[in-house]
Specification:
The chain is of the alpha/beta class. It is built from 21 helices and 27 strands. The chain has an eight-stranded mixed β-sheet with strand order 10-9-11-12-13-16-17-18, with helices on both faces. Helix 1 crosses helix 3.
Length: 844
């Protein structure tokens, strides 16, 4: 598309009486049809220059306006303003350069009408109407002819631009803003003739959000001006922060009409109180230079320091804040500034405007040459700093955009135009929203379909200069044309933060949760405010600010700090202190049993050995030796073979032992019964029968164990439920029914022995073995009855220890109860080791 004009020629629109009567401050309905044009008021201050085409300019030549009393009883006086004028001078310079250019609009001249808005929408409205009209009745073309107004350069604030754009829209007069960045102005239905040479705030709030996330500022305050610029910027930032870890601690508003006393009350009660006492040490401000100046002065009066300011483009490069009195309070401020440029003649032009002399020695100048001795007043120093103009450069580009548009309109040839059927613009059919592209000082100026320019920002950091004043140092950039994630480039090592610190300030509601803990959000508070809760056992967090702790895998457990999963400690009954003790006891028991066996074998021909059936005694001692030794199988890492051997060896050896005791009990009972007349029971309890009883009783246990091993044998298992921090290696019984059948059968044998021995306890004789069998069975049953609950409640290696202890305790009980009295007689009382003494027939 061929670039064309941004604006129409105003003679295509004809609504002059209405326009003029709107300007009047005391309009009545009758004036709507009035034929007499009378100027009702004037507007000061202003800059005016004639030309073939006139460009309007609306600038905040002054700030801090004092509004008059509008009680409608008298004509209101002009608004009183106090402030600066460099941007307007830049427009005048650009117009003069264009008029002197032989290449741009060579046969035409541009004029201008510049009025002051005082950075306030109401005053901006009056300025817009003044631009549409004239300065006096004599030069007011709206009364007699069409206005030669080509376009309007303005406004600085978005609130003022909204008002001015709506006034200009019915006349189809385009408006190019140099400093209105509100995203609301991109609506082409509401503002079809609005353009700007500054990026809209959608990009700025995106850049600020990325900066907050980058520096981990998760707890920030927001301060905005009382206008659309501040309101839409805060809304956009809140939207950008959704889904991030950044929370807003507070939102405060600076009054638009800044009354010192009222504003101070608001700040003391609210804004400054939040800033002073909030844990949010980073404050983002969307405000214009006008209201920020008195606000920051009051801020400094309160002597608040340590705040990291994040400035929007509207005030981050405001030269009014370069004084050294600002540095202790505002030093380290960081923000996004609009792109700077170079205006070669601006410094000389401003000097001419200030001192009324020409800094150049050209003969064509109507001003007297400057002597070089002119003193630069302190209040003028900010306006004479033209080393890196930003807003002024935008004004400069806006004027050139209008000039290039008009130039392109004059160069358009029928058949190659950008309109329907390739036609050129006609006086009655001008489209002000057409694009224009041109190059100025190496920079390409372009507008998108929404009237916005290329999104580009410099990152500005306020640092102390050599004279103690504030200097704006470029520490990075934001290029909105780059891919997502690559737009923001910051040179962190060049940044000086608030308080003249080189470390990035911390601004969080809650300190970070270190690895080993998780964040627990406080009820009723933003997600950035949380408590740090240590991870539970078996859970870890290995990152800072973890939202939740994660479970360790099944075979792992959390370390002491809850930062890593380590292999669980594997426990089983090993040769530690407990295992060694059980081993010693087991070996000692086996040795004692073998010693008794040796004593009995050595004295096998004595009466006490022979009377008590030496063969059964040797069987019992053999079985007890196995019982003592089988407890050793419970010590060590469980394996498939050891697990099967543990329970089967224990059950078979004890069954063999109890079977032998049962046989001995039957023999004792039969021996004493056989002494009665007519008794013939001993023939049924001979050696073969005794062996048969032992074999049969033991065979039953063998069958149970065989069935157990075939159906569901014991096997090694990893117990992680009893104590989750450990893996307890144990032997699973496999079939619980078989396990309890084995124990039950041994218990049945023991009970039968106990009953039979109990019946024979009072039979005559000096050595009635039935008494000792009764006592041994009593101990045996007591041990195993106590074993059952202890075994069920004890975990892993302790369960094995309990079972091993029960085996040893019951074995020692049988050994001592059955053989200690006999050994005592054999070794210490040999005189009683006679048949007569044992039968009670010894001579007194």
């Amino acid at each position: 598309m061929t670039p064309l004009a941004l604006f129409p020629l105003l003679y295509s629109v004809s609504v002059f009486p209405l326009t003029y009567t709107v300007v009047s401050s005391i309009t009545t309905p009758a004036l709507l049809v009035a034929k007499v044009c009378t100027l009702q008021n004037s507007f000061q201050p202003s800059f005016v220059a004639d030309g073939d085409y006139v460009i309007g300019g609306i600038f905040p030549l002054h700030y801090n306006q004092e509004m008059p009393d509008l009680n409608s009883t008298y004509r209101p006086p002009p608004v009183k303003c106090n402030g600066a004028f460099r941007w307007a001078q830049t427009m005048r310079l650009a117009v003069e350069e264009i008029n002197q250019s032989p290449r741009l609009l060579p046969n035409y001249t541009l004029g201008y009408k510049i009025f002051d808005s005082c950075a306030y929408p109401l005053t901006g409205q009056r300025a817009a109407l003044a631009v549409l009209n004239g300065l006096s009745e004599g030069n007011s073309p709206m009364c007699s002819s069409v206005s030669p107004l080509l376009a309007v350069i303005g406004e600085s604030g978005s609130a003022q631009s909204i008002v001015v754009s709506r006034i200009l829209q019915p006349f189809r007069i385009p408006m190019i803003s140099y400093f209105s960045s509100c995203a609301c102005l991109t609506d082409r239905r509401k503002y079809p003739t609005f353009f700007r040479v500054i990026p809209n705030d959608d990009y700025q709030v995106k850049a600020i959000a990325q900066m907050l996330v980058r520096f981990n500022w998760t707890w920030v305050g927001l301060v905005r001006g009382d206008h659309e610029y501040g309101r839409f910027a805060v809304q956009g930032l809140m939207k950008e922060l959704q889904g991030t870890k950044v929370c807003v601690a507070y939102q405060e508003m600076i009054p638009l009409l800044y009354n010192h006393q009222r504003a101070l009350e608001i700040m003391q009660v609210d804004t400054l109180n939040y800033i002073l006492h909030s844990s949010a040490k980073v404050v983002v401000v969307f405000s214009a230079e006008g209201e920020m100046t008195p606000f920051l002065r009051d801020y400094m009066v309160q002597n608040i320091t340590g705040i990291q300011w994040v400035a929007s483009e509207a005030w981050v490069t405001a030269s009014v804040f370069t004084g050294n009195e600002y540095y202790p309070y505002l030093g380290g401020t960081i923000g996004f500034g609009i792109r700077k440029g170079h205006i070669s003649k601006l410094s000389d032009y401003l000097q001419t405007a200030l001192y009324g002399c020409s800094p150049s020695s050209s003969s064509g100048s109507q001003m007297p040459p400057c002597s070089g001795q002119e003193s630069l007043l302190e209040q003028h120093s900010a306006y004479m700093n033209t080393s890196s103009p930003r807003v002024a450069y935008n004004v400069y580009k806006a004027v050139y955009a209008i000039a290039h548009s008009l130039h392109n309109l004059f160069l358009c040839q029928p058949g190659s135009g950008p309109f329907q059927n390739n036609s050129c613009a006609q006086s009655n059919d001008i489209h002000p929203w057409q694009e224009v592209t041109f190059n100025i000082d190496g920079e390409e100026v372009d507008f998108d379909l929404k009237g916005d320019s290329i999104p580009y920002y410099d990152i500005i950091n306020w640092q102390r200069g050599t004279g103690g004043n504030i200097e704006f140092v470029n520490v990075g950039l934001f290029d909105g044309t780059k891919p997502v994630g690559e737009e923001l480039v910051i040179q962190e090592d060049r940044i000086m933060w608030a308080g003249h610190q080189s470390e990035v300030p911390v601004s969080v509601c809650s300190a970070s949760c270190f690895p080993g803990s998780r964040k627990a959000v406080r009820r009723g508070e933003p997600v950035c405010c949380f408590d740090c809760v240590p991870c539970d056992n078996g859970k870890i967090s290995n990152q800072t600010n973890s939202i939740e702790c994660t479970f360790c895998p099944e075979d792992f457990w959390s370390n002491k700090d809850r930062t890593a999963c380590i292999p669980k400690k594997v426990e089983y009954l090993t040769f530690d202190s407990l295992g060694i003790a059980l081993t010693v006891i087991s070996v000692l028991g086996a040795c004692l049993t073998l010693a008794v066996f040796a004593v009995f074998f050595y004295h096998r021909n004595t009466a006490i050995v022979r009377v008590n059936n030496s063969e059964l005694s040797f069987f019992i001692l053999f079985a007890l030796t196995l019982c003592f030794l089988c407890s050793l199988v419970f010590i060590g890492k469980p394996t498939s073979w050891s697990c099967m051997l543990r329970h089967t060896a224990f059950s078979i050896t004890f069954s063999l032992c109890i079977s032998c005791i049962l046989g001995k009990t039957l023999v004792v009972l039969a021996a004493f019964t056989a002494t009665r007349p007519g008794a013939n029971i001993m023939k049924w309890l001979g050696i073969k029968q005794q062996r048969g009883i032992i074999f049969s009783c033991t065979l039953v246990q063998l069958v149970i164990c065989a069935a157990w091993l075939i159906d569901a044998p014991p096997s090694p298992s990893r117990n992680t439920k009893y104590e989750r921090s450990k893996i307890i290696l144990e032997c699973s019984v496999g079939s619980s029914l078989a396990f309890w059948c084995v124990l039950g059968y041994i218990g049945l044998q023991a009970c039968l022995c106990f009953i039979l021995a109990f019946l024979a306890r009072k039979l005559p004789g000096n050595f009635n073995e039935a008494k000792f069998i009764t006592f041994s069975m009593l101990i045996f049953c007591a041990v195993w009855l106590a074993f059952i609950p202890a075994y069920i409640s004890a975990p892993g290696n302790y369960a094995d220890a309990v079972e091993s202890f029960a085996i040893l305790a019951s074995s020692f009980g049988l050994l001592f109860c059955l053989f200690a009295p006999k050994c005592y007689i054999i070794v210490l009382k040999p005189e009683k080791n006679t048949k007569q003494h044992l039968m009670g027939k010894e001579k007194k």
